[in-house]
Predict the structure.
Amino acid sequence: MFRYIVKRLFGVVPILLIVSIFIFMFVHLIPGDPARLVAGPDASHQDVELVRQQLGLDKPIVTQYITYISNLVQGDLGISMKTKRNVYDEIADRFMPTFWLTVWSMVWAIVFGLLIGVISATKRNKWQDYTGMFSAVSGISLPSFWLGLMLIQLFSVKLGWFPTGGSESWKAYVLPSITLGAGVAAVIARFARSSLMDILREDYIRTGRAKGLKENVVVWKHALKNAMIPVITMTGLQFGFLLGGSIVVETVFSWPGLGRLLIDSVSFRDYPVIQAEMLLFALEFILINLLVDILYGVMNPQIRYE
Amino acid sequence: MENSGVIVQTNEQVTQIEVEKVRTPFLEFWRKFKKQRMAMIAGSFIILLFLIAFISPFIAPYSSVEPDYDNILSPPSMEHFAGTDAFGRDIFSRILEGTRISLFVGLSSVFVGAVGGTILGLISGFYGRWLDSIIMRFCDVLFAFPGILLAIGIIAILGPGLGNVIIAVAIFSIPIFARIVRSSTLAIKSTVFVEAARSIGAPARRIIWKHIFPGTVSSIIVYFTMRIGTSILTAASLSFLGLGAQPPSPEWGAMLSSGRDFLNTAPHVTFFPGFAIFITVLAFNLLGDGLRDALDPKMKD
């Protein structure tokens, strides 16, 4: 097991390296002179040169990269061009609202996704299955910004049950997390259904039924345990989807999180913040995939020996 | 199951086998696909959408750009099926007009992504070794960014606009196709007929295009259809965020975004464009599901 984890950890290193180079290159990929971009269109020639020196853009590219990485390790992500604050502080302020939003979305997506998936699989080709699977494919096709706005229109504007934005009380979490979780719930439902259907065909399930176990015990205890292995992998991968989706949903609900910060930064061309956010999102995504991989190995011993 | 009579060859069964030989792969596919009722409906709807995309200027009841200041934000009525927007423009006509934009963005971005991904996947799977490592690491890096984030990053570099949205969506479709084509290529590479082609001295390029590529086509088609829905959704999201199509354009995401300020007084301005996105994406997803079941039952979502 230990060897497996170490192997996985080392597997991530090259990806991390390339991702960091990619993000480092980000400012250099923008057409035009990065120093001028950072200094702004009104800056004088002298100011531009000053910025170039400050950012070290006059040094060879390899030196620049090494400086970038060593600053990164020390938590120095640069200064926001918009607020003139430290990017690290800027992001730290926004991290928790996004974190809790994704966690709540995931929690309810797993609960509803599994429920729909299991019901569909056990009632195969009955109306429950058709309803469940049609809602699932609808959930995948729903534009989250539209769903969000319609929920606001109905539950905030008309009924006044929930606030239209902000993240102060638990009530503020309800609509955004439903909006963000809908797509993931749909994916989990579809995946859980097909995985459980495969398992229900196995011999040991027939044995369970033959020895007189209740159907609920067979499904929820014996079958679901094995059916969950691929579902967990899939769910882990959906975290990336949530991270991406949070960008849209946070804009709809005026959520003070990382996603909205990113959109604001893109419209303002606040490159240090964009760079830092891209890096953070990529890191989170890689880390989650790694955890999923390890968890998969823990649950399924066959994988470890391959 | 239909081949179960092959062992004992009575006359009747010989004819049966001959009849099966006549069945082209396309007919075989059609026979299975016809049974998928939802996919058939979705497919017909998509054909209708393409039709609308071509003839919308002729059938739209109103102009999609001319403002009408006597009819600002009027609710749905017999004259304006979907009401009018803040400039008094007929939303129904604008949605018809926007069909062309959405289909164009969806198709072109996935097409570019599929071509790029297929070539990379074939090379990666066929040649293996260091080429494979480089291409797959490249895909891993692209995969390290959740879809829309990568698109936003690319737009941050290129600047906002619909053309850049197409490029961005195309780029993040590449690794998906590359991975699928690579895994099919690996499976086909080790088959006997490829071994045979290799041993009679067929050049690599011929083996790739004549023998391996046809075997990957069915999974490419399935993913192609499924990705169109996702791409339309992503492009609309980016327009909604103000990074794609810009306001006067009747792009559905941009239309919806412009209705946000009137959510209290005129919810129809946001409702109808969003509904158009929803049913279009739903149709492509249902068609994709149907194609998957008909072409490649082993593939799962």
